[in-house]
Amino acid sequence: MRKITLSQILYFQVLLWSAVGCGIFTTQRLLGSLPLGDFRGVVLTLCGILFIYCYAFLIYRIFLHRRPLQEGYLPEGSREEFTAQVNILFYLLIFNSLIRTHFLPVPLMRLVYLALGAKLGDNTYSAGAILDPPLTFVGANTIIGHDAALFSHAIEGSHFSLNAIHIGDNVTIGATAVIMSDVIIGDGAIVSAGAVVSKGTRIAAGEVWGGIPAKRLKAAPSPENSGATKA
Q1: What does the radius of gyration of the chain's CA atoms come to, in whole angstroms?
Q2: Which of these, 214, 218, 219, lies nearest to 197 by C-alpha position?
Q3: I need a surface site. Which of 9, 115, 124, 167 has the fewest CB within 10 A?
Q4: Cα(21)–Cα(199) distance, rounded to whole angstroms?
Q5: Per-residue CA distances from 35 to 28, 44, 160 (Å)
Q6: Strand ordering across the sheet containing 190-191
């Protein structure tokens, strides 16, 4: 694992304290003069945390717009690595508490992932953890089961790379499954509970995969069989 440098930490600190400062300022401006009664301190603290997170989302998206994550191998000391390491700091110190603690209900988590840059189709929800939302593309009517994990980064010793995950429509990802970077899953496929889909795997439409590492358990139905079933 590569060391996070002082310059990366300082860059992140500027963004973090910008969010904190804006959140505190907004709380004081909007609520500071209101008669909040005996629970004034509690209300101001909770609202302050909410505003800080809102500004953190905004600042993070501006950061990604100015310095988008680059797919592929990230050379050490490069601009691409710098951006990826700052991105990691955002997740470790700000967003991880939302993604990993199951504090928010699943419908609200969809909004969180969209705010963080994930591409999610209509009626798609995740009860698991999408660890690299900007590099995660999921179609419509797809469910990601409880405690499943999707991550588009690969850290193997000093090797550091980013590759997007693409998941189609009507896909089922079972509970506690792991989907690694550079995986493509076709429409209607099923990944069984507890499976570990290795990086670079290609799962065709309609296939069923499972196991550690995941292997094809059932091929997609042929067009002839599909037609007979429907008839």
Answers
A1: 21
A2: 214
A3: 9
A4: 40
A5: 13, 11, 52
A6: 125-126, 143-144, 172-173, 190-191, 208-210, 215-218
Rounded CA-CA distance 69/77 in Å is 15
Which sign, positive or negative, has the C-alpha torsion 84, 86, 87, 91? positive
Are the C-beta atoms of 52 and 16 separated by less than 8 Å? no
Rounded to whole angstroms, the Cα distance separating 202 from 231 reads 31
Return d(Cα 195, Cα 127) in angstroms, integer: 16
Q: What is the 3-state secondary structure (H, E, C) of 87-126?
A: HHHHHHHHHHHHHHCCCCCHHHHHHHHHHCCCEECCCCEE
Residue range 12-60, pLDDT digits in tens: 999 999 999 999 999 998 887 778 777 878 888 899 999 999 999 999 9
Structural domains for the chain: 1-101 (no CATH), 106-231 (2.160.10.10)
